[in-house]
Amino acid sequence: MVPEQTDQPFSHGLTARILVADDEPRLLHTLASLLRNRGYEVAEAHGGRKACDLIDQEPFDLALLDLRMPEVNGFDVMAHLANGQPDCGVIVVSGESSFSAVSRALRRGALDYIRKPFDPEELLATVESVIGKKSLLEAHEHIQMRLEKSEALHRYIVNSSPDIVFMLDQDGHFCFVNSKVESLLGYQPAELCGQHFRHILDDRDVTRGTLALKGPNITADNPRTLEVRLKTRGSRRATRHFEITAFPIDPQTWPHSGSTQGGGNGNGARYYGTARDVTERKEAEAFINFQAYHDLLTRLPNRALFKDRLELAITHAKRGGQKLAVMFLDLDRFKVINDTLGHAMGDRLLQAVTHRLEKCLRKGDTLSRFGGDEFTLLLPSIHNHEDARQIAKKLIDALRAPFQLGDHEVFVGVSIGIAIFPEAGEFMDQLIQNADIAMYHVKGKGKDGYRFYSDSMSIDTANRLNLERDLRLALERDELRVFYQPQVCSKTNRIVGLEALVRWQHPERGLLYPRDFLPLAEETKLIGQLSERVLDQACQDVGRWIRAGHDDLRLAVNLSPIQVEHPRFVETLMQQVKAHNFPAGNLEIEITENVIMNDLEQISQKLRELAALGVRIAIDDFGTGYSSLNYLHRLPIHTLKVDQSFVKAIRSGDDGACIVNAIVAMAHGLKLEIVAEGVETDEQLEYLRGLGCHQVQGFFYGPARPAVEISRTLGTIRAKAASF
């Protein structure tokens, strides 16, 4: 018997009437044109209010709505559709991608959700799929209304069902299964008939599945419903998730005569059921669960999952009298790379770092991305501190080799703080906090290393927090002072330059020197504000002296690695200089060798830009870093500053002076100027003069002084007997 034909509300695809609503005219027209080219009838609504007016005037089969529209948004239009045209389907096309927005739209009845910017082919495929499904659903509802009138229609629905329809005998063997089983699982219906249904159950669900039909309370009004995994043909590993609903059949009332498509005819059936493929839903649930407990960029456990595992590990450690370690890892130089090369490269770097770190771990260890460039590591069941020490060394070594990001070779290090349970804390938050404190102590000692937490660190941390608070207030209250130390010509005793040095007039601790607060300023990212203040004041003071007749007076300023490595370093520096009308040719910036060698390619370009503008470049503390002749002749360097530790080695007949000899000779050979720091005695001065050292600075000519004292002595110094 052929099932009765039904009139569809519209044919699949081409005659559907579609409403498109968006508040962006260009996007609205593009979307409408795309649909018209595919043959759909399209009405355009510029905004939600216009969409509601069109809904009141004419019927639609489908609406494509933006969520973010002024006055009347997409949710309002969906509500208006639900009241006026409840049969009209809705697809959301929106840039709003938050989970709450997607969830809300689907709860309001949206059939699908497409994120802007959309792929045209994907959008058209979605529209066709939704229209097709809508048509099928409407046909399905229409056919179900006629089930009581026609057994033929019943067979038609069974064989056209999107679900697997099956019948089982009293012992659980298939006596009928429709043809849908072939497209979903790959089995021919005929080959399953006579087989026990456990034949297609995943091994993990066999016991639960077979017991389900043996429950005493299964009735037609109370069917058995459960979710199980079914195996696809030819592979025990390829499984799909199904929702099974099974009803008992009364053998006295079950009409099992006649034939039907599929396997078997239902003779001997005692259970009737459907199996709906819910794999996509289960995968979506699994992804949402994964998203809640993992970092999507690195695929590592996130903060929440790490804390859960740490809490459990602490419980086991207490029960077994064992130790465990919590490590807090912070990448060195990551922010500079991220700011310089962009966030995309920064993300690639984090993924590469994760890959290397994971290779160092033992089975059972938990590496977590705690946020930004911070990671935490749980080492359960360690024997002693040495176990944690070995892992820390492996992690540091793993990140020591350069990373290749496109055309860029970059270097990162890692600072690791370690807290051992129970010595460093017996509770989760305590261990994490103390590992973090230990990590900050590594940062304060030069980065790229590890330290175990000790009780004394908490005291240091409290002092550090107080000092950080005071430093922030110092910037607000203008407590920073700029002092100047003269750079003197070794032959004429004339002041040729002034090095600007910062001091902090602390209201309680008195005058603080850079060593007391600059490391903290760099660590807390306050160094940028602090340096701007120093440079502003120095440009004002020295600029005033230059205009007063000291045309050749040079201003030397120290710059931190954070400043130099910033992408907008050159632009920011020159803006400050121009703001004070300070002559660029009188400015000399001092940087260390380590700053250059951390990223030679990027720093070289910045130095060339500055040199082209007239700014002089000096290498500070020369001889204590890489001291590579390669960069000396490649970069626009004007001055080498000999570190005071070498100057102090100058003694009569002392071999320690050989380093000074070599540096001065090197400077002469490269035609560079040279400044010797830390000159304190006649002996040192005479030795340097004899070598041909151009300029000196140090306590021999006096310590750094405030601007008011420099003003009184400028131009008058001739010898040591001057007022210094």
Automatic annotation (TrEMBL):
The UniProt keyword set, sorted, is: c-di-GMP, Phosphoprotein
Q: Which residues carry this modification: 4-aspartylphosphate?
A: D66
Catalysed conversion reaction: 3',3'-c-di-GMP + H2O = 5'-phosphoguanylyl(3'->5')guanosine + H(+)
The Response regulatory domain is annotated at 17-131
According to its UniProt entry, the protein's GO biological process terms are: cellular response to nitric oxide; phosphorelay signal transduction system; regulation of DNA-templated transcription
Give the PAS domain ranges: 150-202
Q: Where is the EAL domain?
A: 464-718
Q: Per its Swiss-Prot or TrEMBL entry, what cofactor is needed?
A: Mg(2+)
**SUPFAM superfamilies from the UniProt entry:** CheY-like, EAL domain-like, Nucleotide cyclase, PYP-like sensor domain (PAS domain)
Record SMART domains: EAL, GGDEF, PAS, REC
Q: Which Gene3D superfamilies match?
A: 3.30.70.270, 3.40.50.2300, EAL domain, PAS domain
Cross-referenced Pfam families? EAL, GGDEF, PAS, Response_reg
What GO molecular functions are on record for this protein?
Answer: cyclic-guanylate-specific phosphodiesterase activity
EC nos: 3.1.4.52
Which residues does the UniProt record annotate as the domain GGDEF? 322-455
Q: Record's PANTHER family?
A: BIOFILM ARCHITECTURE MAINTENANCE PROTEIN MBAA, DIGUANYLATE CYCLASE DGCP
Q: Please identify the protein, giving its name as recorded.
A: cyclic-guanylate-specific phosphodiesterase
